[in-house]
Design goal:
- By secondary structure, this protein is of the alpha/beta class.
- The chain has two domains: 1-122 and 309-345, Nucleotidyltransferase, domain 5, CATH 3.30.420.40; 125-307, ATPase, nucleotide binding domain (Nucleotidyltransferase, domain 5, 2-Layer Sandwich), CATH 3.30.420.
- It is built from eleven helices and ten strands.
- The strands form two sheets. A five-stranded mixed sheet has the order 3-2-1-4-5, sandwiched between helices. A five-stranded mixed sheet has the order 8-7-6-9-10, with helices on both faces.
- Helix 2 runs parallel beside helix 3 (85-102), helix 5 crosses helix 6 (185-193) and helix 5 packs parallel to helix 7.
- It starts with a strand and ends in a 31-residue tail after the last helix.
- Bound molecules: 5'-O-[(R)-(carboxyoxy)(hydroxy)phosphoryl]adenosine and zinc ion (ZN).
- The site of 5'-O-[(R)-(carboxyoxy)(hydroxy)phosphoryl]adenosine has 19 residues, from helix 5 and helix 6.
């Protein structure tokens, strides 16, 4: 089964062709980072305009790279939410037009489910039920993932925990901006933190007092802001920061706190719910320290741990095609009247999450 995937939920215009939900025949990504960097974040209006310019050449390129034609495709999967409404509209409308013109089935894919598929499509040995930590610029969610079929073809999700305020990637981007680093700051901080002392600044780890498995990252952002003010730190770019040990220590300590917060909640969830594996995905899954710590901690907790290859951590269409394939195999197609939903949910929050009864 050949599926074309289209992803335009934020600032990447992406198209991919995937066979049987696993084999990637092509994976084309146009990143708009250069357009948005001068503004320190994604400008929605500019994003939609650039998607409009790029969608056709990017999809054409995906076909060319794969060596297949639209006629050979069995279905078209496009992200329908969550994301920026204008951006989502471009990709979904293009997918609808292709589906209509060629009478092909259309699948509307949840972007977050796509991120989960970025791990499972490459790892044939994922053991379910799994805990999936999705950490990106827009989301920080912990899901309980069960498989009806024992493999990737039919996954079901329950929301175990989520951020109460900022997403983890957003915290990276905001702290980077405070210190003068370019957008997106996550990869920059990842590089710089390697030269700093992780224990130099004792950031307190946020604890949600109601016993839930939620996250909170706004406190640490405020702590960094206070430090920036009290130490009168002016904006410095990556090169200048590299020569300033205090800043390197600050960044390394900030990163350590984020990683520890992510693991602290994930560990609690793992102890309560006893999953068979842990899946990490989303843009922040590219973080070298997060990968390192989770690898070590998961091994200590006897949890199998999987994360995507670097190219599949940030937004891409291969993950959308893979998730779309699973839906298509189950006959879950979308009507041509489907609209994007900027606030689309993969699962609703679970109230009695710490009671094992909810699993059944
Ligand atoms: O998944 P993604 O491409 O887009 C969303 O769906 O949000 O994630 C982008 C986010 C940005 O906040 C970026 O700073 C962060 O992922 N990011 C990283 C790293 N690479 C990307 N954060 C920490 N370390 C990295 N190496
Ligand atoms: Zn994403």
């Amino acid at each position: 089964m050949l599926v074309l995937g289209i992803e335009t939920s934020c600032d990447e215009t992406a198209a991919a062709i995937v066979r049987d939900g696993r084999e990637i025949l092509s994976n084309v990504i146009h990143s708009q980072i250069k357009t948005h960097t001068p503004y320190g974040g994604v400008v929605p209006e500019l994003a939609s305009r650039e998607h409009l310019l790029k969608i056709r050449p990017i999809v054409d390129q995906a076909f060319k790279d794969a060596g297949v034609t639209l006629d050979q495709i069995d279905g078209i999967a496009a992200t329908s939410g969550p994301g920026l409404i204008g951006s989502l509209l471009v990709g979904l409308t293009y997918a609808k037009a292709l589906a209509f013109a060629k009478n092909k089935p259309l699948v509307a894919v949840n972007h977050i489910e796509g991120h989960i598929y970025s791990v499972v499509f490459e790892h044939t040995d994922v053991a379910f039920p799994a805990l999936a930590l999705v950490v990106s610029g827009g989301h920080t969610n912990l899901f309980w993932v069960e498989s009806e079929t024992g493999d990737f073809r039919h996954l079901k999700y329950k929301l175990v925990g989520r951020t109460r305020d900022d997403a983890a990637g957003e915290a990276y981007d905001k702290v980077g901006k405070l210190l003068g680093l370019s957008y997106p700051a996550g990869p920059v901080i990842d590089r710089l933190a390697k030269f700093g002392d992780r224990n130099a600044v004792p950031f307190s780890i946020a604890k949600i007092s109601d016993g839930s498995l939620d996250f909170s990252f706004s406190g640490i952002k405020t702590a960094v802001l206070r430090l920036v003010k009290s130490e009168k730190l002016e904006p410095r770019n990556e090169e200048e920061t590299r020569k300033d040990q205090r800043r390197l220590d600050l960044l390394a300590s900030f990163q350590e706190a984020i990683v520890n917060m992510l693991w602290a909640t994930t560990e609690r969830a793992a102890l309560e719910l006893e999953p068979r594996s842990l899946l990490l995905s989303g843009g922040v899954a590219a973080n070298s320290r997060l990968r390192e710590v989770l690898t070590e901690k998961a091994a200590g907790a006897a949890l199998r741990f999987h994360y995507p290859r670097l190219i599949f951590t940030t937004d891409n269409a291969a993950m959308i095609a893979a998730a779309g394939t699973a839906h298509l195999l189950r006959g879950e197609t979308a009507d041509l009247t489907v609209n994007p939903d900027p606030n689309m949910r993969l699962a609703v929050p679970q109230n009695n999450i710490l009671s094992k009864r909810w699993r059944n």
